C-alpha cells in the first residue's frame, strides 16, 4: 500500500509528545505537521522517515539522543499509531497516511 | 428436662402396685381348703393347687418380665441421660470453641475443618447423627436410635454428591494442567481445596438451638459477624461476593516501595482485608515526601517508612497479617521474598529496580502490578499475567522486558526530586494498583492492560493495547537467559545495565568553586561577577540567590549559541556591571550547572571567540558553583526556601 498524500504531495499528521518528550519539542504536546509524502529516496514516507523529519525539523533541542538512537526512537519511548502499538503496525516500516495520529510517550520510573 | 424426670418417676412406681394385687388373690384360695374334705373336694383341692401353681408361675413369670422391662427401661433412661449429658457437654465445648474461635483467627477454623475433612468416610453418618440429636433436643422429630431420618439423610447425600461433582470437574482441569506441566496446577489444587472447605463448612452448619440460647448468641456478635460488618459493603458486590472475600482473606500481597504509589495501595489493600501484606522499603520519611505519601504524618520525619506504615496500617485494619522488610530490596533477595506472595506490586522509583522486580516476578511466576508517576502523568501496567513458564504458555502475559527490551539512558529519565510530582497523580496510580491487585486475587483471569493518565489532558485516561509478548525476551521467553540462579547469585548488575549514573564530571577542578568563594567574589567585586541560575523558571521564582539571573538549561540545550544570545540580551539590562564581567553558573544541586557550562564552553561562539561579546560588554565564562542553590541555602542564606 502506498502512502496516502494530498494533492500537494504532502501528508498532514498530528503528533503528540508526552512523558517529558514535550520538553524537547518547544514544551508543546500536540503538533499538527505537514511533511512530504515520499522520503529522500523517493520511497513512500514511513514512520522511520517521520522520526527523522521530527528530529531535524520540529525538535529544537540539541540533545537529539533524547529522542532518537540508532536511527529509530530511543529505548524507553513507546509509539502509538492511531492508538495502536506501532510494533503491531509494522513499527519503522509503517507507511504514513493522511490524518494519522502519532503518539510518542517516554516511560516514567518515578513513584 | 423437668418433664422427662416426672415420667421416669411414674414408670418406677407402677411395678410395685402389680405385685401387691398378686398376693391378695392367693389368700382367697387358702380359705376355700378348710370348708370341705371329701374326695371331690380333695380332687378339686388338687386341681385348684395345680391351677394356683400355674397361676403363680404365670404371675412370677409376668413379674420377672415386668422387672426385666423395668430394668430395661432404667437402662434406657441411663443411656438417655448419658447421651443428654454428653450432648450438653458438646454444647459447652461448642461454646468454648466459639469463644476460642473469636480469639484466634481463621487458622483454628481451618485446622478443625481439615480434621473434619480427614474423616470424610464417616462424615455423612456423623452429620446425620448430630443434626438429629440437635433436632430432638429442640423438641422436634429426630432419629430414634438406629432409625434414621430418611429425608435428612437424603439431603446429606445430595450435598455430598454436588461436592463430588465439582471435585470431578476440578480433577479434569488439574489432569489437563498436569499433562501440560503447567504451574497452574498448584493454584487449581489450592482453589479446589478452598471450595471444598467452603462447601463442607456451609453444609455442616447446625440448625438453630432453643430460642433462649439463640438470643444469648445474638447479644454477643461473633467474630464472623464482625467480619461481615467490616467487609459487607464490598462482599455484597457481585464482583467480590463471599468467595471473593475468602480469596482476599487468603491472599498474600507484597508491596515493594512505600512512597507515593505504595502508601495508597497498601492502605486500600489493608482495608480490603487481604490475608498478608508485605511491606518493603529501606528509606526514612522526609518532609518532601509528605505531600504525596499518605501514610506518614509530620511527626514521622526521620522514621523508618516500613515501621511507620505498619503502625498506621494496623490502625486501619488490625485483623490482617503484616510482614515488615525494613531494607532496600536487591536482585539477590527478591526471588526468595516473592516466593512467599501471590501478587507483587512494584511501587519503586528507579529504572533498575523496575527491571529486577520484573525479572524476579518472572522466575517466581508471580503476576506483577506495575505503575509509575512523574509530574502530572502516570503509567500503569499488569505484567507477567498469567505468569510466564519455562515450558512456554501461549497465553502468558508480557514482562517489563518484553515492552522495554533496552533500558533508557539515565539522562533521559528524571526523578520526582528533579521533575516534581503531584500528590493526587501518583495517588491515582497507587489506587489503580490496589484495585488491580484485588481483581487479580478474586478473578485471576483478567487480561493484561496498559493505561496512561495525564492529569492536564482533555482525555486524562488513555488505554493502550500493549500486549506485545516478545518471543525472544531474555527474561520470559523460551530463549531466556535470566535465571533464578543468576538473579540470586548477585552477578547481574542492574545499575550498570541501566547506564549507571549520568556523567556530571565534565569540568576541570579549576572551573569549580565553593559557595563561600562565590559569595566572596560577588560581595567584593559586584561589577565584575554575575551569577546565572540554570534551573527552570518555576523553581527560580520559588527562590534564588539575590542578584542572580535566570537562564533555564533547556534554553541552553535547545541551542547553546542562541542561549548565549539570550544571556547577552538579559545582561545588557544590568546597569551595575562593569566592562568585562565574568559569568558563573549555579543550579539546584550543582549538577546541571556543570552540564550547562560544558555546553556553553563547547558552543561555536565560545570556541571561536573565547568570550561573549554583546552590546558594550565582553563577558568571560567563569565557574560552576559546587553544591548549587542547596549549598548556598545551607551555608550562606538559611532564609532561602528549602523546597
Ligand atoms: Zn518478557
From TrEMBL, chain A:
Keywords: Cytoplasm, Isopeptide bond, tRNA processing, Ubl conjugation pathway. CDD domains: Ubl_Urm1. C-terminal thiocarboxylation occurs in 2 steps, it is first acyl-adenylated (-COAMP) via the hesA/moeB/thiF part of UBA4, then thiocarboxylated (-COSH) via the rhodanese domain of UBA4. There is a cross-link at residue 111 (Glycyl lysine isopeptide (Gly-Lys) (interchain with K-? in acceptor proteins)). It comes from the Eukaryota. The modification 1-thioglycine is found at residue 111. It is found in: Cytoplasm. InterPro entries: Beta-grasp_dom_sf (IPR012675), Mopterin_synth/thiamin_S_b (IPR016155), Urm1 (IPR015221). Pfam families: Urm1. Its main location: cytoplasm. Pathway: tRNA modification; 5-methoxycarbonylmethyl-2-thiouridine-tRNA biosynthesis. Coiled coil: none annotated. Signal peptide: none annotated. Gene3D superfamilies: 3.10.20.30. SUPFAM superfamilies: MoaD/ThiS. Acts as a sulfur carrier required for 2-thiolation of mcm(5)S(2)U at tRNA wobble positions of cytosolic tRNA(Lys), tRNA(Glu) and tRNA(Gln). Serves as sulfur donor in tRNA 2-thiolation reaction by being thiocarboxylated (-COSH) at its C-terminus by the MOCS3 homolog UBA4. The sulfur is then transferred to tRNA to form 2-thiolation of mcm(5)S(2)U. Prior mcm(5) tRNA modification by the elongator complex is required for 2-thiolation. Also acts as a ubiquitin-like protein (UBL) that is covalently conjugated via an isopeptide bond to lysine residues of target proteins such as AHP1. Belongs to the URM1 family. PANTHER family: RURM1 PROTEIN. This is Ubiquitin-related modifier 1.
Automatic annotation (TrEMBL), chain B:
Residues 1-82 are annotated as: Disordered. CDD domains: ThiF_MoeB_HesA_family (cd00757), UDM1_RNF168_RNF169-like (cd22249). InterPro entries: Rhodanese-like_dom, Rhodanese-like_dom_sf, ThiF/MoeB/HesA, ThiF_NAD_FAD-bd, Ubiquitin-activating_enz. Residues 150-177 form a coiled coil. Residues 47-82 have a biased composition (Basic and acidic residues). Pfam families: Rhodanese, ThiF. Keywords: Coiled coil, Nucleotidyltransferase, Transferase. The keyword Nucleotide-binding does not apply. The keyword Nucleotidyltransferase applies. Residues 10-26 have a biased composition (Polar residues). Residues 525-641 form the Rhodanese domain. It comes from the Eukaryota. Plays a central role in 2-thiolation of mcm(5)S(2)U at tRNA wobble positions of cytosolic tRNA(Lys), tRNA(Glu) and tRNA(Gln). Also essential during biosynthesis of the molybdenum cofactor. Acts by mediating the C-terminal thiocarboxylation of sulfur carriers urm1 and mocs2a. Its N-terminus first activates urm1 and mocs2a as acyl-adenylates (-COAMP), then the persulfide sulfur on the catalytic cysteine is transferred to urm1 and mocs2a to form thiocarboxylation (-COSH) of their C-terminus. This is Rhodanese domain-containing protein. It comes from Stereocaulon virgatum.
Amino acid at each position: 500500500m502506498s502512502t496516502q498524500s494530498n494533492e500537494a504531495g504532502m501528508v498532514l499528521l498530528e503528533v503528540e509528545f508526552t512523558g517529558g518528550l514535550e520538553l524537547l519539542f518547544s514544551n508543546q504536546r500536540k503538533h499538527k505537521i505537514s511533511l512530504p509524502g515520499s522520503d529522500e529516496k523517493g520511497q513512500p514516507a514511513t514512520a522511520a522517515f517521520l522520526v527523522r523529519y521530527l528530529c531535524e525539523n520540529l525538535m529544537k533541542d540539541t540533545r537529539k539522543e533524547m529522542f532518537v538512537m540508532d536511527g529509530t526512537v530511543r529505548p524507553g519511548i513507546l509509539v502509538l499509531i492511531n492508538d495502536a502499538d506501532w510494533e503491531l503496525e509494522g513499527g519503522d516500516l509503517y507507511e504514513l497516511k493522511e490524518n494519522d495520529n502519532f503518539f510518542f510517550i517516554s516511560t516514567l520510573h518515578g513513584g | 428436662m423437668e418433664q422427662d424426670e416426672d415420667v421416669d418417676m411414674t414408670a418406677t412406681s407402677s411395678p410395685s402396685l402389680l405385685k401387691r394385687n398378686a398376693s391378695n388373690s392367693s389368700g382367697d384360695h387358702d380359705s376355700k381348703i378348710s370348708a370341705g374334705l371329701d374326695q371331690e373336694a380333695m380332687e378339686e383341692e388338687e386341681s385348684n393347687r395345680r391351677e394356683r401353681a400355674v397361676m403363680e408361675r404365670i404371675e412370677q413369670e409376668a413379674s420377672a418380665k415386668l422387672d426385666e422391662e423395668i430394668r430395661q427401661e432404667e437402662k434406657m433412661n441411663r443411656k438417655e441421660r448419658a447421651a443428654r449429658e454428653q450432648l450438653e457437654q458438646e454444647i459447652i465445648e461448642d461454646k468454648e470453641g466459639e469463644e476460642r474461635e473469636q480469639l484466634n483467627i481463621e487458622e483454628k477454623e481451618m485446622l478443625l475443618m481439615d480434621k473434619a475433612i480427614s474423616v470424610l468416610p464417616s462424615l455423612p453418618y456423623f452429620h446425620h447423627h448430630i443434626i438429629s440429636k440437635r433436632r430432638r433436643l429442640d423438641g422436634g422429630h429426630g432419629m430414634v436410635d438406629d432409625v434414621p431420618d430418611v429425608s435428612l439423610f437424603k439431603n446429606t447425600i445430595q450435598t455430598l454428591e454436588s461436592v463430588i461433582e465439582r471435585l470431578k470437574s476440578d480433577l479434569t482441569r488439574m489432569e489437563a494442567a498436569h499433562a501440560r506441566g503447567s504451574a497452574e496446577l498448584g493454584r487449581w489444587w489450592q482453589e479446589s481445596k478452598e471450595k471444598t472447605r467452603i462447601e463442607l463448612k456451609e453444609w455442616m452448619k447446625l440448625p438453630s438451638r432453643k430460642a433462649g440460647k439463640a438470643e444469648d448468641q445474638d447479644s454477643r456478635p461473633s467474630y464472623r459477624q464482625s467480619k461481615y460488618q467490616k467487609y459487607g459493603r464490598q462482599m455484597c458486590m457481585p464482583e467480590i461476593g463471599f468467595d471473593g472475600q475468602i480469596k482476599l482473606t487468603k491472599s498474600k500481597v507484597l508491596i515493594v516501595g512505600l512512597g507515593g504509589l505504595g502508601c495508597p495501595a497498601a492502605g486500600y489493600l489493608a482495608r480490603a482485608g487481604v490475608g498478608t501484606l508485605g511491606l518493603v522499603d529501606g528509606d526514612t520519611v522526609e518532609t518532601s515526601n509528605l505531600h504525596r505519601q499518605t501514610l506518614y504524618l509530620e511527626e514521622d520525619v526521620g522514621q523508618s517508612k516500613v515501621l511507620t506504615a505498619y503502625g498506621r496500617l494496623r490502625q486501619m485494619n488490625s485483623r490482617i497479617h503484616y510482614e515488615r522488610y525494613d531494607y532496600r530490596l536487591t536482585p539477590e533477595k527478591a526471588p526468595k521474598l516473592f516466593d512467599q506472595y501471590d501478587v507483587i506490586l512494584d511501587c519503586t522509583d528507579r529504572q533498575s529496580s523496575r527491571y529486577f522486580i520484573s525479572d524476579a516476578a518472572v522466575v517466581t511466576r508471580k503476576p506483577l502490578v506495575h505503575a509509575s508517576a512523574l509530574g502530572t502523568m502516570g503509567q500503569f501496567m499488569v505484567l507477567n499475567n498469567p505468569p510466564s513458564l519455562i515450558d512456554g504458555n501461549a497465553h502468558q502475559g508480557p514482562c517489563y522486558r518484553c515492552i522495554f527490551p533496552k533500558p533508557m539512558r539515565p539522562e533521559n529519565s528524571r526523578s520526582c526530586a528533579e521533575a516534581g510530582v503531584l500528590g493526587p497523580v501518583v495517588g491515582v496510580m497507587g489506587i489503580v494498583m490496589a484495585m488491580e491487585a484485588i481483581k487479580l486475587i478474586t478473578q485471576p483471569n483478567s487480561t493484561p492492560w496498559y493505561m496512561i493518565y495525564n492529569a492536564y489532558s482533555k482525555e486524562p485516561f488513555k488505554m493502550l493495547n500493549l500486549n506485545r509478548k516478545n518471543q525472544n525476551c531474555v527474561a520470559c521467553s523460551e530463549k531466556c537467559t535470566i535465571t533464578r540462579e543468576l538473579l540470586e547469585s548477585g552477578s547481574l548488575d542492574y545499575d550498570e545495565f541501566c547506564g549507571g549514573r549520568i556523567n556530571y564530571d565534565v569540568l576541570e577542578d579549576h572551573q569549580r568553586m565553593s559557595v563561600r568563594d562565590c559569595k566572596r567574589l560577588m560581595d567584593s567585586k559586584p561589577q565584575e561577577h554575575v551569577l546565572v541560575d540554570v534551573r527552570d523558571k518555576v523553581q527560580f521564582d520559588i527562590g534564588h540567590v539575590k542578584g542572580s539571573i535566570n537562564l533555564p538549561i533547556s534554553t541552553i540545550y535547545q541551542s547553546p549559541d542562541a542561549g548565549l544570545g539570550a544571556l547577552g540580551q538579559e545582561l545588557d539590562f544590568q546597569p551595575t556591571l562593569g566592562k568585562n564581567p565574568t559569568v558563573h553558573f549555579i543550579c539546584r544541586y550543582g549538577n546541571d550547572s556543570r552540564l550547562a557550562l560544558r555546553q556553553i564552553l563547547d558552543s561555536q561562539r565560545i570556541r571561536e571567540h573565547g568570550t561573549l561579546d554583546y552590546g558594550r560588554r565582553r563577558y568571560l565564562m567563569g565557574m560552576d558553583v559546587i553544591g548549587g542553590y542547596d549549598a548556598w541555602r545551607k551555608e550562606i542564606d538559611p532564609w532561602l526556601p528549602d523546597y
